[in-house]
Amino acid sequence: MVKFDLDLRINAVTAYLNGMGSTTVARQFHIAMPETVLLWVHRFERFGVLGLRSRVIHSEYTREFKLRVLHWMKQHQASYPETALHFDLSSPSTIWQWVTAFERDGAQGLVSKRKKAIPVTKRKTKKPTPKLSKSEQELKTQIARTS
Length: 147
Fold this sequence. Notes:
Layout: H1 6-17, H2 22-28, H3 34-47, H4 63-75, H5 80-86, H6 92-105, H7 134-146
Helix pairs in contact: 1-3, 2-3, 5-6
């Protein structure tokens, strides 16, 4: 379920563009943060109505892409929101996480730490029975005879 449907987003952006402040728009449309309204306005100005549609969040980015984003941000002295908008990323906080990881661990910190799923086998493989020594075999045979 989408938190804010497309009609609400369009109405909020329209209200802002008609002169209402972002805080007032946020209150009127029950949006927790005025920054959300501003994000929608910027996305609308850059991408039109398509920028307001709900998006599938890209779950993984390559280390090279992350480095390119961080390089562009530094080169253009851009803010997190400006950089997110430029690269069409869903959230500026994603970039903040990349910056933090890069400062802590360098380029290696940008490598995804997600583990690949391990396929589940349907049948358990039977473990080979350990070979018994000659004396153990003889003992087993004697026990079988007496039983």
